[in-house]
């Protein structure tokens, strides 16, 4: 068993998330540990077991406000594209609660796209001055012929939709949709 799989298994068994698994600062509350979402390129580079641990545990609801600010996108637009209830998320933010597995997975899907774009830019040349979060926000809002004129944002509310959008980004790097 690889060391990252062993760490993830150990973290799941103990009900806590090891810092080495999540590679993120975290604080422990009486009920369960709370993870802060870290730098997007790092999340993209986490192994799947570490991301699964984060999803199962839930990420802080405040992550959504931080993500919308980084993206330069209104919180309402981000919530709508993710198919999340504004009232539910606002209540969870007010209570400093964690998102559910489903909500966490949707939010981390956007974080994953941002990391993917950042990685693509780094591989292509000099990423200095490039803001992957803002680029993704802009790209998500533009209708694409490959989606029959729909926006990528309209696909972000499901895992399969996020996978389709990520695949489109990967194909665009190779020039398929250029």
Question: How many E-type strands?
Answer: 2
Oligomerization: single chain
Strand order of the largest sheet: 1-2
So what's the overall shape? globular
Order of SSEs? HHEEHHHHHHHH
Distance between the termini: 41 Å
| Main pleated sheet | 2 strands, antiparallel
Radius of gyration: 16 Å
Taken as a percent bin, the fraction of beta residues is: under 5%
- Low-pLDDT stretches are 1-40
Provide the structure class: mainly alpha
Mean pLDDT: 81
Which key phrases capture this entry?
178 residues, mainly alpha, two-stranded antiparallel ribbon
Describe the overall structure:
There is one protein chain. By secondary structure, the chain is mainly α. It has one domain. It is built from ten helices and two strands. A hairpin with a 4-residue loop joins strand 1 (26-28) and strand 2 (33-35). Helix 4 (48-57) packs antiparallel against helix 8 (101-124), helix 8 (101-124) crosses helix 9 and helix 8 (101-124) packs parallel to helix 10 (159-173). The longest helix is centred in the middle third of the chain and has 24 residues, at 101-124. The radius of gyration is 16 Å and the shape is globular. The N and C termini lie far apart (41 Å).
